[in-house]
Amino acid sequence: MALKMRLSRGGSKKRPYYHIVVADARAPRDGRFIERIGSYNPLLGKDDEKRVQLDTEKAGEWLKKGAQPTERVARFLGTAGLVKWEHGDNPNKAKPGKKAQERIAEKEAAAEAAREAEEAAKAAAAEAAAAPAEEAPAEDATEEKAE
């Protein structure tokens, strides 16, 4: 029989309260369990001592018998010093999806085109600023002849 140390939900709607239980892996989440070894109240502050209450002796016995903790329960057991818990390593989880990557690529292409257009406009403005200085006397000469 595969044993799991997991959370069993209790509490009312929008006010969760969990019992830390040892159960058969095939049993439903809130269904039959073998033994209750603690509780978890996520509504309390993280520094509150009553947020996680765990019977470490019972938990240690069940770990020796082969019970596998879930991620959340392993975190609690790691805090208690019974299990070495490490943060999960999934480098692909933080990457955006395919459509989002396409949108990002389109935005980068549009930004690059805007930068190139801005540089071209600056270059044209610089040329225009240099060119009228040379042509200005010629225009003054034509105006004087017309008078």
Describe the protein in words.
- It is a single chain.
- The chain is of the alpha+beta class.
- The chain has two domains: 3-80, 2-Layer Sandwich (S16 Ribosomal Protein, Chain: A), CATH 3.30.1320; 98-139.
- It has three helices and five strands; from the N terminus they run E-E-E-E-H-E-H-H.
- A five-stranded mixed β-sheet has the order 4-3-2-1-5.
- A hairpin with a 2-residue loop joins strand 1 (3-12) and strand 2.
- The longest helix has 49 residues, at 98-146.
- It is rod-shaped.
- Belongs to the bacterial ribosomal protein bS16 family.
Q: In brief, what are we looking at here?
A:
The chain has 147 residues and is an alpha+beta fold. Helix content is 46%, strand content 21%.
List the topology elements.
Elements: E1 3-12, E2 15-24, E3 35-40, E4 52-54, H1 56-64, E5 68-69, H2 71-80, H3 98-146
Count of helical segments?
3
> What is the third-level CATH name, the topology of the largest domain?
S16 Ribosomal Protein, Chain: A
CATH class placement of the largest domain: Alpha Beta
Query: CATH homologous superfamily of the largest domain - what is it?
Result: Ribosomal protein S16
How can the largest sheet be summarized? 5 strands, mixed
N-C termini distance: 110 Å
> Strand portion, in percent?
15-25%
Give the name of the CATH architecture of the largest domain. 2-Layer Sandwich
Gyration radius from CA atoms, angstroms: 35 Å
